[in-house]
Design brief:
Elements: E1 3-7, E2 12-13, H1 14-26, E3 30-34, E4 43-50, E5 58-66, E6 81-84, H2 89-93, H3 97-109, E7 113-116, H4 120-125, E8 133-134, H5 141-146, E9 150-151, E10 160-162, E11 165-168, H6 174-187
Parallel strand pairs: 1-3, 1-6, 2-4, 6-7, 7-11, 8-9
Antiparallel strand pairs: 4-5, 10-11
């Protein structure tokens, strides 16, 4: 059974967390959802981001998402892939040195990495984007460029694959990012 590490945090985007967590579980992968400084059984609050015609998304309270593994127990060698959720969580989880170290290990190893929406902020902070092509929520495009990556704007329901990295700009891209992430996992 393939094991996926999902790094998330408070005010992660609801659909960008719950849909991948449940979908990957349905097809038989074990998904360990973790958050820095939290333990298995604790929760993160989610936020629902919607596109209602404003200049950016709107944000509404989401659900409580229960973590199923303690962050302190995570070891890189235990996992076949990494999924970085979006929303506001990446703003602060990218400040955690263990998160950055894990991201660097996954990217250097060639194991599949998926990052949706603002998840690219974690990749940028880990300094793993030099020479990589990816997408993200458009407001994160400058972060990608400053980190040495090539930002590609695609429709919200699309994804971009560059080697072991698959990205999508927002939750409408769940189907696209998951399809490509699963392909990468199955190629291992």
């Amino acid at each position: 059974m393939k094991k996926i590490l999902m790094i998330t945090g408070d005010f992660t985007e609801d659909y960008e967390t719950m849909v991948p967590f449940q979908t990957l579980g349905v097809i038989g992968y074990q998904v360990d959802a973790v958050c820095p400084d939290k333990k298995a059984g604790e929760y993160v609050k989610t936020a629902i981001h919607d596109f209602e015609g404003d200049q950016t998304y709107t944000e509404k309270p989401g659900h409580l998402f229960q973590l199923n593994k303690s962050f302190d127990e995570v070891e890189f060698d235990d996992y076949d892939g990494l999924f970085l959720t979006g929303g506001r969580a990446p703003e602060y989880i990218r400040l955690n040195q263990k998160v950055l170290s894990l991201v660097k290990c996954f990217m250097k190893s060639g194991k599949p990495v998926a990052a949706i929406c603002h998840g690219a902020q974690v990749l940028a902070a880990a300094d793993v984007l030099c020479g990589r092509t990816l997408t993200a929520y458009p407001a994160v495009g400058p972060d990608v460029k400053l980190a040495g990556g090539t930002y590609v704007e695609v429709a919200p329901d699309e994804s971009v694959v560059d080697g072991n990295l698959v990205t999508s700009p927002a939750w409408p891209g769940n189907t696209a990012i998951l399809k490509e992430f699963i392909c990468l996992l199955e190629q291992q």
